[in-house]
Amino acid sequence: GYVMNAVRTIRRELKGEVPLIGFSGSPWTLATYMVEGGSSKAFTVIKKMMYADPQALHALLDKLAKSVTLYLNAQIKAGAQAVMIFDTWGGVLTGRDYQQFSLYYMHKIVDGLLRENDGRRVPVTLFTKGGGQWLEAMAETGCDALGLDWTTDIADARRRVGNKVALQGNMDPSMLYAPPARIEEEVATILAGFG
């Protein structure tokens, strides 16, 4: 398909100078767009489904987890050297609901991914926007790295997960509007926090 041809072409054009990272939305995030009909501020439609008909939502999330696993594996076979699962809307859930309706399905995906291709390990990164309170549970999925949003203190994240996984991210994207010297300061602060 189109995406896999794009992955192959980009990988070839990169000539090994930069790693190519494949990605997908998480089942929960994809389901929010499907059920809500687009982006949402309150997520009332999917939350109503979650509370009123959890079996239907679990059936949808299971199908999405299988599809995302196939999609990411196809990206890996086409040349992606690492993959990332973006759980953009996991942070809108309670801790219990996050475990049941989001993390559980990301764990299933991690378990089903190709972890080696072309003789190299394929790292997997999980990212949950607003999910800093669940880092320990995320690190237990078998992923290699956790993507952190700018609301998570990086030094605290490192303390909590130790060296079990790599940490990635943490800069507020709006910082890129700052003058270059200010961006450099922020990057230095983040790097110092990595430990």
From TrEMBL:
Keywords: Lyase
GO CC annotation terms, alphabetical: cytosol
GO molecular function per UniProt: uroporphyrinogen decarboxylase activity
GO biological process: protoporphyrinogen IX biosynthetic process from glutamate
Domain Uroporphyrinogen decarboxylase (URO-D): 21-37
EC category: lyase
Enzyme Commission designation: 4.1.1.37
InterPro entries linked: UROD/MetE-like_sf (IPR038071), Uroporphyrinogen_deCOase (IPR000257)
Name of a matching Pfam family: URO-D
Name assigned to this protein: Uroporphyrinogen decarboxylase
Organism of provenance: Escherichia coli
Lineage, top ranks: Bacteria, Pseudomonadati, Pseudomonadota, Gammaproteobacteria, Enterobacterales
